[in-house]
Amino acid sequence: MNATNATSLLNHLEAYTAEEVAAKRRVLALLERQGAGVAANDPATFEAAARSMEAELAGNVERSRRRERILGALSELWRVPAEAMTLASIAERAGTESARLRDLRSELRGLVADVLRENRRLAALIGMHRRVTRDVIETVLYEGHGTARDGSGGLLNAEA
């Protein structure tokens, strides 16, 4: 194994992982902003955060390609199937050269868990907001027996 190539690839992988950590931090902050917009019934805040989220997620494609190139090169160098290459297995193979990679991996795992948790919280908050809105609409449009007041609120088949 060429140590220079391995060291160079490990440096590239560390840089990629640091970028991924920073991206997950930004995604987490945007999810929190979206949640704050929903909780405050502030559509402008929610929409601005959603637009920023779209831009942030667009960067995932290039980072993913970069990761695949790095992992593919390490896979060839170490003669290990690319599917078996994980940050943990790479850090283990790299030994003492991988202290920073191990730290970044740990931080990334924590951030991914935080993003998943915040995403579930946001989904629950949006679901609750949707149910409250539906209940208000039903209360305003329908009488006690489920009939629409004055015929309002009924759907019309425009094709008929």
Secondary structure blueprint with pairings:
Elements: H1 3-39, H2 43-78, H3 87-94, H4 99-141
Helix pairs in contact: 1-2, 1-4
Would you kindly provide a written description of the structure presented here, covering whatever features stand out?
There is one protein chain. This protein is 78% helix and 0% strand. The protein has helices spanning 3-39, 43-78, 87-94, 99-141. The model has no long low-confidence stretch (mean pLDDT 88). The chain starts with a helix and ends in a 19-residue tail after the last helix. The protein has one domain. Helix 1 runs antiparallel to helix 2 (43-78). The protein contains 4 helices and no strands. The protein is mainly α and 160 residues long.
- What's the multimeric state? single chain
Largest sheet: none
Q: Helix share of residues?
A: over 70%
For the secondary structure, the number of strands is: 0
Basic shape: elongated
Number of domains: 1
The residue-averaged pLDDT reads: 88
Strand content: under 5%
- Low-pLDDT runs of 5+ residues are none
Contiguous helical run count: 4
Radius of gyration: 24 Å
H/E element order: HHHH
Q: For the record, give the distance between the C-alpha atoms at the N and C termini, rounded to a whole number.
A: 73 Å
Structural class: mainly alpha
